[in-house]
Write a structure and sequence with these properties.
Blueprint (H helix, E strand, L loop, with lengths): L1 H25 L5 H25 L5 H21 L1 H15 L3 E4 L14 E4 L6 H4 L8
Antiparallel strand pairs: 1-2
Helix pairs in contact: 1-2, 2-3
Amino acid sequence: MLLSTTLATPTAYFIADLVISRIKVLLNGKLFILRYVIANIIGKLLLVSISYPINYYLVYPILIIFKIIIDTWLFKIAVSLLLSPIAIMTANKIKKAEHIDCFDYGIFYNPILVFNETTSRVNHYEEIEESQISEFQALPK
């Protein structure tokens, strides 16, 4: 179990962060909910598809492991969708409090060379109008 967690967790979170970073740049910072959902779908799928076969390969047949993966993945996605309003409100409050909304231009995603000096992050907070900060203005504050 320790091996599967050690492999699955950093891999899944790294890929999810990479996906959300690239989509944010491609969508010019718009559609946070779409970025959040896509990154969660990919990240959670990687998490369960790496860890569960390692955990259960001697315990259950492969078809049962596959069913466990699918059921767990669907459950995790449902929970992340239910919690998405909280994630949106939290992200907006942090952006507003810290006046930071960074875009990852020219980021080199090699985890071994993560501290490459050619990477840059650009804060676009000041360029965003107050009405654009929250995608869900109807949500209670």
